[in-house]
Design brief:
iron, Flavocytochrome B2, Chain A, domain 1, two-stranded antiparallel sheet, mainly alpha, globular, 57% helix, heme
Length: 319
Protein backbone atom coordinates (compact mmCIF):
# COMPACT_ATOMS: atom_id res chain seq x y z
CA UNK A 1 0.00 0.00 0.00
CA UNK A 2 1.58 3.26 -1.08
CA UNK A 3 1.16 6.16 1.33
CA UNK A 4 1.08 9.62 -0.15
CA UNK A 5 1.47 11.47 3.12
CA UNK A 6 2.72 10.58 6.59
CA UNK A 7 -0.10 12.74 7.97
CA UNK A 8 -2.67 10.06 7.19
CA UNK A 9 -4.04 8.11 10.13
CA UNK A 10 -3.67 4.61 8.68
CA UNK A 11 -4.09 2.74 11.97
CA UNK A 12 -6.18 -0.32 11.20
CA UNK A 13 -9.49 -1.04 12.88
CA UNK A 14 -9.58 -4.41 14.62
CA UNK A 15 -13.08 -5.70 13.92
CA UNK A 16 -14.90 -8.59 15.56
CA UNK A 17 -18.52 -9.76 15.62
CA UNK A 18 -20.40 -10.75 18.76
CA UNK A 19 -23.94 -12.05 18.28
CA UNK A 20 -24.05 -10.28 14.91
CA UNK A 21 -22.99 -6.85 16.21
CA UNK A 22 -19.74 -5.31 14.92
CA UNK A 23 -17.09 -3.99 17.31
CA UNK A 24 -13.85 -2.12 16.64
CA UNK A 25 -11.60 -3.14 19.53
CA UNK A 26 -8.35 -1.65 18.22
CA UNK A 27 -8.11 0.89 21.11
CA UNK A 28 -8.31 -2.03 23.57
CA UNK A 29 -6.06 -4.52 21.74
CA UNK A 30 -2.81 -3.57 23.47
CA UNK A 31 -4.54 -3.89 26.89
CA UNK A 32 -6.05 -7.32 26.22
CA UNK A 33 -4.84 -9.73 28.96
CA UNK A 34 -4.41 -12.52 26.42
CA UNK A 35 -2.35 -10.34 24.10
CA UNK A 36 -3.05 -8.56 20.83
CA UNK A 37 -2.19 -11.60 18.68
CA UNK A 38 -5.20 -13.51 19.96
CA UNK A 39 -7.52 -10.70 18.90
CA UNK A 40 -5.84 -10.41 15.51
CA UNK A 41 -6.34 -14.14 15.00
CA UNK A 42 -10.11 -13.90 15.42
CA UNK A 43 -10.57 -10.47 13.79
CA UNK A 44 -13.29 -10.37 11.18
CA UNK A 45 -15.09 -13.37 12.72
CA UNK A 46 -17.88 -14.14 15.19
CA UNK A 47 -16.26 -14.51 18.64
CA UNK A 48 -19.27 -15.71 20.63
CA UNK A 49 -17.96 -19.26 21.17
CA UNK A 50 -14.44 -18.04 21.95
CA UNK A 51 -15.59 -15.53 24.56
CA UNK A 52 -17.86 -18.07 26.22
CA UNK A 53 -15.04 -20.60 26.40
CA UNK A 54 -16.72 -23.09 24.05
CA UNK A 55 -13.88 -23.19 21.50
CA UNK A 56 -10.10 -22.88 21.65
CA UNK A 57 -8.17 -20.08 20.03
CA UNK A 58 -4.40 -20.49 19.65
CA UNK A 59 -4.65 -23.54 21.90
CA UNK A 60 -6.43 -21.73 24.75
CA UNK A 61 -10.04 -22.01 25.90
CA UNK A 62 -11.17 -19.16 28.17
CA UNK A 63 -14.65 -18.15 29.36
CA UNK A 64 -14.86 -14.37 29.69
CA UNK A 65 -16.61 -12.68 32.61
CA UNK A 66 -19.74 -10.53 32.39
CA UNK A 67 -17.47 -7.53 32.92
CA UNK A 68 -15.60 -8.36 29.71
CA UNK A 69 -18.87 -8.44 27.75
CA UNK A 70 -19.91 -5.11 29.28
CA UNK A 71 -16.51 -3.59 28.48
CA UNK A 72 -16.98 -4.57 24.85
CA UNK A 73 -20.10 -2.42 24.51
CA UNK A 74 -18.11 0.82 24.36
CA UNK A 75 -16.52 -0.36 21.10
CA UNK A 76 -19.84 -1.01 19.32
CA UNK A 77 -19.41 0.39 15.80
CA UNK A 78 -23.16 0.88 15.34
CA UNK A 79 -23.20 3.38 18.21
CA UNK A 80 -20.41 5.32 16.51
CA UNK A 81 -22.45 5.29 13.32
CA UNK A 82 -25.49 6.68 15.17
CA UNK A 83 -23.39 9.66 16.26
CA UNK A 84 -21.69 10.11 12.87
CA UNK A 85 -23.06 13.25 11.17
CA UNK A 86 -21.98 11.99 7.75
CA UNK A 87 -23.81 8.68 8.03
CA UNK A 88 -26.92 10.28 9.55
CA UNK A 89 -27.04 12.96 6.84
CA UNK A 90 -29.98 12.73 4.45
CA UNK A 91 -28.14 14.79 1.84
CA UNK A 92 -25.27 13.83 -0.47
CA UNK A 93 -22.19 13.12 1.64
CA UNK A 94 -19.44 13.38 -0.98
CA UNK A 95 -18.38 16.91 -0.03
CA UNK A 96 -18.34 16.01 3.66
CA UNK A 97 -16.00 13.07 3.03
CA UNK A 98 -13.35 15.50 1.80
CA UNK A 99 -13.35 17.21 5.20
CA UNK A 100 -12.48 14.05 7.16
CA UNK A 101 -8.75 14.71 6.84
CA UNK A 102 -6.61 12.39 8.99
CA UNK A 103 -9.70 10.42 10.05
CA UNK A 104 -10.63 9.39 6.50
CA UNK A 105 -8.65 6.13 6.23
CA UNK A 106 -9.86 4.76 9.53
CA UNK A 107 -13.42 5.93 8.87
CA UNK A 108 -13.80 4.03 5.59
CA UNK A 109 -12.50 0.85 7.22
CA UNK A 110 -15.20 0.82 9.89
CA UNK A 111 -17.91 -0.80 7.75
CA UNK A 112 -21.46 0.50 7.73
CA UNK A 113 -24.13 -2.07 6.94
CA UNK A 114 -26.49 0.32 5.18
CA UNK A 115 -26.18 2.53 2.12
CA UNK A 116 -24.99 6.12 1.79
CA UNK A 117 -26.27 8.86 -0.48
CA UNK A 118 -23.42 10.41 -2.47
CA UNK A 119 -25.14 13.23 -4.36
CA UNK A 120 -28.00 15.64 -3.69
CA UNK A 121 -29.01 15.22 -7.33
CA UNK A 122 -31.26 12.17 -7.77
CA UNK A 123 -30.02 11.79 -11.36
CA UNK A 124 -26.36 11.68 -10.33
CA UNK A 125 -27.20 9.39 -7.44
CA UNK A 126 -28.98 6.99 -9.78
CA UNK A 127 -25.89 6.89 -12.03
CA UNK A 128 -23.80 5.54 -9.14
CA UNK A 129 -26.03 2.48 -8.72
CA UNK A 130 -25.93 -0.60 -10.95
CA UNK A 131 -27.65 -3.97 -10.53
CA UNK A 132 -25.20 -6.86 -10.93
CA UNK A 133 -27.08 -8.42 -13.88
CA UNK A 134 -26.57 -5.28 -15.99
CA UNK A 135 -22.89 -6.24 -16.39
CA UNK A 136 -23.34 -9.60 -18.19
CA UNK A 137 -26.38 -8.25 -20.05
CA UNK A 138 -24.36 -5.33 -21.44
CA UNK A 139 -20.92 -6.86 -22.01
CA UNK A 140 -21.47 -10.53 -22.91
CA UNK A 141 -23.03 -9.74 -26.33
CA UNK A 142 -19.85 -7.80 -27.16
CA UNK A 143 -17.75 -10.76 -26.01
CA UNK A 144 -19.83 -13.01 -28.27
CA UNK A 145 -19.43 -10.70 -31.29
CA UNK A 146 -15.65 -10.50 -30.92
CA UNK A 147 -15.49 -14.28 -30.42
CA UNK A 148 -17.49 -15.00 -33.58
CA UNK A 149 -15.38 -12.59 -35.64
CA UNK A 150 -12.16 -14.16 -34.35
CA UNK A 151 -13.25 -17.75 -34.90
CA UNK A 152 -14.52 -17.00 -38.41
CA UNK A 153 -11.31 -15.21 -39.49
CA UNK A 154 -9.07 -17.88 -37.96
CA UNK A 155 -11.12 -20.66 -39.57
CA UNK A 156 -10.82 -18.95 -42.95
CA UNK A 157 -7.04 -18.57 -42.69
CA UNK A 158 -5.98 -21.64 -40.66
CA UNK A 159 -8.77 -24.19 -40.73
CA UNK A 160 -11.11 -25.36 -38.00
CA UNK A 161 -8.76 -27.24 -35.64
CA UNK A 162 -5.76 -24.87 -35.76
CA UNK A 163 -8.03 -21.81 -35.72
CA UNK A 164 -9.86 -23.07 -32.64
CA UNK A 165 -6.57 -23.76 -30.82
CA UNK A 166 -5.24 -20.27 -31.63
CA UNK A 167 -8.52 -18.68 -30.54
CA UNK A 168 -8.60 -20.62 -27.25
CA UNK A 169 -4.96 -19.77 -26.52
CA UNK A 170 -5.45 -16.03 -26.87
CA UNK A 171 -8.89 -16.05 -25.23
CA UNK A 172 -7.39 -17.70 -22.13
CA UNK A 173 -4.45 -15.28 -22.31
CA UNK A 174 -6.98 -12.44 -22.26
CA UNK A 175 -8.71 -13.87 -19.19
CA UNK A 176 -5.34 -14.20 -17.41
CA UNK A 177 -4.42 -10.66 -18.44
CA UNK A 178 -7.64 -9.45 -16.83
CA UNK A 179 -6.86 -11.25 -13.54
CA UNK A 180 -3.49 -9.49 -13.43
CA UNK A 181 -5.13 -6.14 -14.25
CA UNK A 182 -7.70 -6.78 -11.54
CA UNK A 183 -4.98 -7.50 -8.98
CA UNK A 184 -2.82 -4.51 -9.88
CA UNK A 185 -5.68 -2.00 -9.94
CA UNK A 186 -7.05 -3.30 -6.64
CA UNK A 187 -3.70 -3.19 -4.90
CA UNK A 188 -2.14 -0.02 -6.32
CA UNK A 189 -5.09 2.11 -7.50
CA UNK A 190 -8.00 1.21 -5.23
CA UNK A 191 -5.73 0.99 -2.15
CA UNK A 192 -3.71 4.07 -2.92
CA UNK A 193 -3.63 6.17 0.27
CA UNK A 194 -4.61 9.75 -0.63
CA UNK A 195 -3.13 12.72 1.17
CA UNK A 196 -5.28 13.65 4.13
CA UNK A 197 -4.54 17.31 3.34
CA UNK A 198 -6.28 17.12 -0.04
CA UNK A 199 -10.10 17.02 0.09
CA UNK A 200 -10.17 16.42 -3.68
CA UNK A 201 -7.98 13.31 -3.40
CA UNK A 202 -10.05 11.97 -0.51
CA UNK A 203 -13.20 12.41 -2.59
CA UNK A 204 -11.62 10.72 -5.64
CA UNK A 205 -10.49 7.76 -3.54
CA UNK A 206 -13.89 7.49 -1.89
CA UNK A 207 -15.57 7.39 -5.30
CA UNK A 208 -13.32 4.72 -6.79
CA UNK A 209 -13.11 2.37 -3.79
CA UNK A 210 -13.49 3.98 -0.38
CA UNK A 211 -17.28 3.77 -0.49
CA UNK A 212 -17.07 0.03 -1.12
CA UNK A 213 -15.06 -0.51 2.07
CA UNK A 214 -17.39 1.78 4.00
CA UNK A 215 -20.55 0.05 2.73
CA UNK A 216 -19.42 -3.42 1.59
CA UNK A 217 -22.94 -4.87 1.57
CA UNK A 218 -24.51 -2.18 -0.62
CA UNK A 219 -25.58 -4.43 -3.50
CA UNK A 220 -26.08 -1.60 -5.99
CA UNK A 221 -22.49 -0.37 -5.69
CA UNK A 222 -20.59 -3.64 -6.10
CA UNK A 223 -20.18 -3.55 -9.88
CA UNK A 224 -18.84 -0.85 -12.20
CA UNK A 225 -21.47 1.05 -14.22
CA UNK A 226 -21.15 0.36 -17.99
CA UNK A 227 -21.32 4.00 -19.11
CA UNK A 228 -18.06 5.17 -17.46
CA UNK A 229 -16.54 1.76 -18.26
CA UNK A 230 -16.98 2.22 -22.03
CA UNK A 231 -14.13 4.78 -22.54
CA UNK A 232 -11.84 2.74 -20.27
CA UNK A 233 -12.52 -0.46 -22.20
CA UNK A 234 -12.18 1.43 -25.48
CA UNK A 235 -8.77 2.77 -24.48
CA UNK A 236 -7.37 -0.71 -23.79
CA UNK A 237 -8.99 -2.24 -26.86
CA UNK A 238 -7.40 0.51 -28.99
CA UNK A 239 -3.97 -0.43 -27.59
CA UNK A 240 -4.49 -4.15 -28.17
CA UNK A 241 -5.79 -3.58 -31.72
CA UNK A 242 -2.47 -1.90 -32.54
CA UNK A 243 -0.46 -4.77 -31.03
CA UNK A 244 -2.22 -7.88 -32.36
CA UNK A 245 -3.47 -8.90 -35.81
CA UNK A 246 -7.25 -8.41 -36.07
CA UNK A 247 -8.44 -12.00 -35.34
CA UNK A 248 -5.93 -12.36 -32.48
CA UNK A 249 -7.01 -9.01 -31.06
CA UNK A 250 -10.65 -10.17 -31.17
CA UNK A 251 -9.76 -13.39 -29.31
CA UNK A 252 -7.59 -11.66 -26.69
CA UNK A 253 -9.98 -8.72 -26.26
CA UNK A 254 -13.02 -10.97 -25.84
CA UNK A 255 -11.11 -13.03 -23.27
CA UNK A 256 -10.13 -10.02 -21.24
CA UNK A 257 -13.65 -8.60 -21.39
CA UNK A 258 -15.06 -11.98 -20.35
CA UNK A 259 -12.61 -12.03 -17.42
CA UNK A 260 -13.92 -8.64 -16.33
CA UNK A 261 -17.55 -9.80 -16.47
CA UNK A 262 -16.72 -12.85 -14.38
CA UNK A 263 -14.85 -10.66 -11.90
CA UNK A 264 -17.82 -8.36 -11.32
CA UNK A 265 -20.26 -11.28 -11.01
CA UNK A 266 -17.95 -13.20 -8.67
CA UNK A 267 -17.41 -10.08 -6.57
CA UNK A 268 -21.14 -9.61 -6.17
CA UNK A 269 -21.60 -13.27 -5.25
CA UNK A 270 -18.81 -13.16 -2.66
CA UNK A 271 -20.72 -10.42 -0.83
CA UNK A 272 -24.29 -11.67 -1.28
CA UNK A 273 -24.11 -15.37 -2.19
CA UNK A 274 -24.25 -18.33 0.20
CA UNK A 275 -21.83 -20.99 -1.08
CA UNK A 276 -21.74 -24.35 0.67
CA UNK A 277 -19.00 -24.73 3.30
CA UNK A 278 -15.78 -26.44 2.15
CA UNK A 279 -16.40 -25.45 -1.50
CA UNK A 280 -13.96 -23.26 -3.41
CA UNK A 281 -16.49 -20.43 -3.57
CA UNK A 282 -16.90 -20.60 0.20
CA UNK A 283 -13.12 -20.26 0.57
CA UNK A 284 -13.18 -17.26 -1.80
CA UNK A 285 -16.04 -15.65 0.11
CA UNK A 286 -14.24 -15.93 3.46
CA UNK A 287 -10.94 -14.89 1.83
CA UNK A 288 -12.49 -11.73 0.38
CA UNK A 289 -14.50 -10.87 3.50
CA UNK A 290 -11.28 -11.12 5.50
CA UNK A 291 -9.91 -8.44 3.16
CA UNK A 292 -12.74 -6.19 4.34
CA UNK A 293 -12.95 -7.13 8.00
CA UNK A 294 -9.52 -8.55 8.92
CA UNK A 295 -6.65 -7.10 6.87
CA UNK A 296 -7.17 -4.82 3.87
CA UNK A 297 -3.44 -4.89 2.99
CA UNK A 298 -3.66 -8.46 1.63
CA UNK A 299 -6.10 -10.61 -0.39
CA UNK A 300 -6.33 -8.35 -3.44
CA UNK A 301 -7.38 -11.11 -5.86
CA UNK A 302 -11.13 -11.50 -6.42
CA UNK A 303 -11.41 -13.90 -9.38
CA UNK A 304 -8.34 -15.86 -8.32
CA UNK A 305 -5.68 -15.89 -5.60
CA UNK A 306 -2.97 -16.62 -8.20
CA UNK A 307 -1.39 -13.17 -8.15
CA UNK A 308 -1.63 -12.92 -4.35
CA UNK A 309 0.58 -16.01 -4.22
CA UNK A 310 2.98 -14.69 -6.84
CA UNK A 311 3.34 -11.26 -5.19
CA UNK A 312 3.21 -12.50 -1.56
CA UNK A 313 -0.05 -10.82 -0.54
CA UNK A 314 -1.94 -13.98 0.43
CA UNK A 315 -4.55 -13.38 3.10
CA UNK A 316 -6.47 -15.75 5.33
CA UNK A 317 -9.24 -18.12 4.36
CA UNK A 318 -11.58 -19.97 6.75
CA UNK A 319 -10.19 -20.77 10.21
Amino acid sequence: MGAESSNNNTDKPLLIYLDGALYDISPFASKHPGGRKVLEKVSGTEVNKFMRGEERIMGVKHAHTDAAFEMLLKYDVSKEHELDPIISSKRGILGQVGSLGNDYWRWIHQPYEGTLRLFDSSLLEMCTRTAWWIIPLFWLPIVAIFTIISLYDLYESMGLFTGAIIWATFFIAGVLAWTLTEYLQHRFVFHWVPSSKSPAKLIIHFLIHGIHHKTPMDGDRLVFPPIPAIPIAGFFLLIYSNIFPWPIFCAFGSGKLFGYVMYDCIHYYLHHGSPRPTTHLHFQKVYHNNHHFKDYDVSFGISTTLWDHIFSTVGMGPL
